[in-house]
Amino acid sequence: MTTRDACTDRDGLRCFGLFLSFGRKYWRRRDTLHSEVYEIMNRSWLLLLAAGVCEVGWVSGLKHASNAGEWALTVVGIVLSFAGLLRATRDLPVGTVYAVFTGIGAAGAVLAESLFFGAEWNAVKLLLVAVLIVGIGGLKMTTDVKAKGENG
Known about the structure:
Layout: H1 3-8, H2 12-64, H3 68-88, H4 94-116, H5 123-142
Helix pairs in contact: 2-3, 2-4, 4-5
């Protein structure tokens, strides 16, 4: 007996029970789908963070590399950072990904220069880096990603 046949019976209670069971299945599937989407999003954000850290490495390498090994690490950093950037754009909006990627790179390069290479610390510079990091966090919190194939 199909759901339609059961609902054309004069048994209203049975029809209501079928309706409720459909609703439970629908919401269970919907919750599973949303948890899968957020798991993919979190993975993409972590990949984007790793790509940004690789960007800091290769940008510093362009300035400070002095032998073949350091240049090889710089090239590996370039490949890894852009591979991570491209992969993150599959699940997150391109504009957000690029803004976060360049923000992590810029803030990270300023901090790396100060921490590892003796560049001058400056209160204004630190304040601007903090504003940049807050902006990156704001972009992450306001990014809404829908499941593939979901319209609207």
